[in-house]
Amino acid sequence: MPEAEIQDTTTQNTAVEDESRQQMQMVIVGHVDHGKSTIVGRLLADTGSLPDGKLEQVKATCERNSKPFEYAFLIDALKDEQAQGITIDSARVFFKTDFRDYIIIDAPGHIEFLKNMVTGASRAEVAFLVIDADEGIQDNSRRHGYLLSMLGVGQLAVLVNKMDLVDYDRAVFRRIVRKYKRFLRSIDIDSDAVEFIPVSGMAGDNVVNRSEPMTWYTGPTVVEQLDVFVKEAKRDQLPFRMPVQGVYKFTRYGDSRRIIAGTIDTGRIAVGDEIVFYPSGKRSTVLGFERFNTTETNEMSAPYATSFTLAEQIYVTRGEIAARADETPPEVSNHLRVNLFWLGKLPMIAGKEYIFKMGTARLPVRIRRIHRLLDASSLQTHRRRDQIERHDVADVEFEFDQDVAFDTVEAIPYSSRFVIVDDYEIRGGGIIRSIGDNNDEWFRENVRLRNFNWERSHIAPELRAERYNQRATLILLTGTEGTGKRKISNELEERLFTDGKFVYNLGIGNLQRGLSADIQEVPVGRDEHIRRLAELSHLFLDSGMILIVSGVELTQQDLDLIKVPVNPDSILTVWIGERITTDITVDLHISNPEDSRGSVEQIRTALRKNGIIFSL
């Protein structure tokens, strides 16, 4: 006989798991008042798996409050839920059959709590979607189905509930099946792989016991369908992925170790494994695990937090993804093709900068293009839009100022999910489908290969920074012709040199006459000149220098290309001139360049504020 434990999301999970048994997480979703909680309550009641006295307790509470008893009250444990008759948060039910253990997540159906539904569904491997046979397919019936597919929940069963209200009419059931299958096909879901089950949560038909009024249905009941779902691969059997949470260094007593800390999303790692960090491509070997007040180990696996030291002390940062060198690597790009759902009250606008959060990475992002926008309530598709409205879902191409490491949802779902933050709140989220269209991807791939095989200096960047009292930086001075960029760059170099800084002023003309002399007479595009400037800048910064470069009317495309080999955090962009004439994003705008001394002081002030020069 199955057993169950009921728990809402405000309490701590105290269920003791039998590690020898298989466990599966599933979510039950659907439009508000279509009977999700009732079905779960009936499932528990009809299997006799409620805790002792739970059913009687809820019935007594309803009687005291002069409310008719509903099976939904068995899991609607929050006071606000019972007061309003809707599920606000995601209640969790721990349920066992002879076959395996289940965590059933009862997600809210009201559109105002769509974010809570997404939170619950993102943890699920399989899903039940409930449709009211009397009301039929509603907005959230479609919207939830689309969000499930976006979240990578690949196994779905649809429960056509409240069949007792339509006199168990087979024609009503078939009509809903036909219409919803048509919707599933429109969003690229294999409708033939989805099981449709006619049920009545209130009467108990086809939940646990077979329905006498629906002898025409011969498929599985709800409890039978639970055991039909196929368990996904264990997380520790997938390729190793660990987003870097932090890097800790202890300098007392000559301790030069760097401890890399994070939570393992998938896979396993052991002492002696070669690790590659993406997107930087830096690599080293695991020397040992750092553990406090516990036994030592030579191996760690998902989903546990861990920290380890490396044989070679390389410089990595929070947000990078660690992977094993002998396994399939993550993808790397600054253009992503994603499926996105938007929950913000204000629309998401193409061209506006938002914050993209995935794992421990936090990066500025912009919509480059909206390929397709779907109104899930009407099924209308729009292709020429420049913004995404609340509760819309969209096929979007994102653009970043720097590379991001990721996996597609088909490969590893855990490292393909992201959220979008605007004004310090989560406004949307989605999954990564593929690398976006990008003309300079060959350059990015070349840089990744270069970093992968780079013969690094034995002097770490932070040691150079400490010695030089500066942080290696590329200062880009740009503006229209004749605005005094050359004079300002010369005076800036002289002033920083006088301050004791390690600085060099590189004229683009010198680059063209030297490194790029071989392409002066060859019809190559501007990008090749910028690419060579970027590679040369990378070498200067690797040596710990402050490099000053001036150029006429650099564009955002030029800047994006420079950021391929040069860390965006190591670039200070300055526009010289009264009016900015290109689309470039600048850190400092000097509108009165005639005062060259004052211009130099403005740049020095920006260098101090950004922690580039430590002392003067």
Oligomer: single chain
Low-confidence stretches: 1-17, 77-90, 108-114
Percent range of helical residues: 10-25%
**Amino-to-carboxy terminus distance:** 76 Å
Structural class: alpha+beta
The backbone outline, from C-alpha atoms, is elongated
Number of strands: 29
- In CATH terms, what is the architecture of the largest domain? 3-Layer(aba) Sandwich
Biggest β-sheet: strands ordered side by side in the sheet: 1-3-4-2-5-6-7
- Total discrete domains: 4
Q: Please indicate the percent range of residues in DSSP E strands (runs of 2 or more).
A: 25-35%
Query: What CATH first level of the largest domain would be assigned?
Result: Alpha Beta
- CATH homologous superfamily annotation of the largest domain: P-loop containing nucleotide triphosphate hydrolases
Radius of gyration: 29 Å
Mean pLDDT over all positions: 80
Number of helices: 14
Question: Main β-sheet: number of strands, strand sense, barrel status?
Answer: 7 strands, mixed
Under CATH, the topology of the largest domain can be stated as Rossmann fold
